[in-house]
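Run log, item B.
One chain of 205 residues. Sequence copied directly from the ordering sheet:
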Amino acid sequence: MLTSGHEQEASSVPDADLNPTETTGYKVGQQKTVEELAQLDAEDESLVRWKASLGVGAGAKPTAGSGPAVTVLSLSLSSPSRPTPIELDLTTPAALSALKSDPIVIKEGAEYSVELRFRVNHGLVSGLKYIQVVRRLGKNWDKLEAMCGSYGAKDEPYVKKFPAEEAPTGMIARSGTYTVRSRVTDDDKTVHADFEWYFKLGKEW
């Protein structure tokens, strides 16, 4: 299920489980446009470099734009024990739905990393965050919550790789299908993507 204009089915992972952790004492700063940021302290070299990393400055895309601010393109699983990553194309809802009956296979005990590829279409997105909850047999098994950062609009996709995790092991862990609900949100609590995918554990990839 995707939030980008597609009909959603009820999820087995409750919405409340996808809520981001609130940082005590942290306040969301006043949102500025790309144009306003470009004018800030132009003579400050460190700030110029920071703005350049966000795509702010000469040649930056303007704040205004139609359509979604962020398009999440793919989610990949890579592992030192696997020659090529497993890539989920998030621009094709039918391919994602097919995983319910034919889930991907993750090798038990394997170390793997989740990688997100996304594009910022216009404006500036502050505090982009990825959250995923893994659920099986009505119970949450794992939750990953990782900060991506702040990004300005540009034509090329951004890629964010998260710290490695280790897959469970054992006969019980190998039984049944795991449901993963993933969400991409930001400081303003805007949900840019919300989708489910499925996997099983096997003795090999």
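Observations after the first pass:
- The first helix runs from residue 34 to 39.
- Residues 63-202 form a domain with the Coagulation Factor XIII; Chain A, domain 1 fold (CATH 2.70.50.30).
Flagged for discussion on Thursday.
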